[in-house]
Structures are given as structure tokens and as C-alpha cells.
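Model it.
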Amino acid sequence: MMLAELDVRHTRRHQPTRRVALGDAYLPTSGVAFGAVLLGAIVAEFATAVEEEEYDALLRLANDARSGLSVPRIALRYRLQTDTHGLDLSRHHIIGPDIEAGQVRPRLELDLHGPPVSQLIGALLGAASLPPSGRSIAFKAVDAALARPGRLPEGLDVRRRLQGLPGVRPPAPGVRAAGSTVDGWQGVPSDRRWAMEVLGLSSDMAVERDDVQQRFRRLVRLAHPDHGAVKVGAAERIAELTDAREVLLGFASAGGRSAG
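Modeled.
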């Protein structure tokens, strides 16, 4: 069972821009307050990677976030925004123990593939998005993490993932799992997975230059207003397709295949 979750949307590593947005979030602050625990854990994990000259700016941003964060704005050289179009996804969550499998402690899963500063900003955006009472609880955990970076909350089994998307989401509270599912994207780097999905490639398909070019041209034609597509979002969709093509063409040139 999922006890808390935070999706941080951020610029992909191959892109020169620095953008971050808040994705899906489930951050309960009542009872055990696993939402606050998760936010504190993210801050504690990634604060150790912040350069010394940026740490004061991080503290100032955390102080501003106590009364909510205005978006868009610039913070720690990142543009904070609400639009998640074309952004990479880092997913952090706490999952309840599987009693039948003999587990007794909740599991904290941290996604390490994204830039550390973007994860910190995402955690602050998550805390700032809560109502005042929940925000107060969340920032107690954030403050404790900032005071002792690197020290994760006790009582959790910690797993760190390096390949981006952890796979199938755990079930939401109150929903039983329908059985195990094999994640065909296991071991595929997140940038490549995103690009393949944008161009309609499944995890078991080879990445061939000609196929990438053909798919790109067809999808751009479908997305272009001159061919009947709506104007709203067309430019963003074409930019997304262009980025995906560049990622896969670079991979194809290296002679790789879709599986990691």
C-alpha cells in the first residue's frame, strides 16, 4: 500500500534549461504523517549534494515556502513552473510493509537519477502546496532534515534507485494489488524510456534510425495545426517529439538496442 508519494518533474539531463515542477503528490500529514516523513527524507538525502554557496539560498527558499511558493519564479537557478510537458519524472514514495512477505517496516524508495537541486525544490513545492496545518507539520520534518542533512528518518527500510522510474506504482490506500507485473522497462535509462514512449516504441523494440525518423515525421505531421491539429499545445508537442528524436538518434548512432 502506498503511504506517501511525491513526483518531481524536472529538466532532462541532456537539456540545457533548468526547470522544475510539482507532479502528482500524496502527502498525508495526519496520524503518522507519512507525507511529512517522505518530504523530510528527500531533503535529507539530496541536501548533502548542494554546493556550499547554494545552501544559504536553499535555506532562504525553504523559509519562503512556509507561506506558499509563487509559480512561476526563479529559485536556485531553476525556473519553477506548473507545466510538466516534456519534463523528466523522479518518483519518491513510502510503501507499507508486505506482511505476508514477512516485512515489518515501511519501505522508503528514493529516485536518484535526477539532479539533486531539482529534487529539493520539488520537496519544498510539495510542502508549500499543503494547507496551512499540514504545511506546518511538513516543514518541521524539512527543518530537521536541513539541520542534519544525510540523516534519514528512522524506522524505514531504504531503497535507492538509479534508473529513473521505479516501475509499476504500488496500489493506492485501500486498493489491493491485482498481482505482480513484470516491468519491461527494467534497466532502461529514464531518458531513453521517455523518448521511446513519446515516439510510440515499446520496451522490447529495437531503436533503428530509419524507424525513429519515420515515426517522428508522422507524429509531427499529426501534431501540426496545418494538418488539422489544434493550435493549443501544438508547439510544445512538436518540441517534445524533437527532443525524443534527438535522444533516440544519439542512442541509435551508438549502436544500442532498447533493452539496457
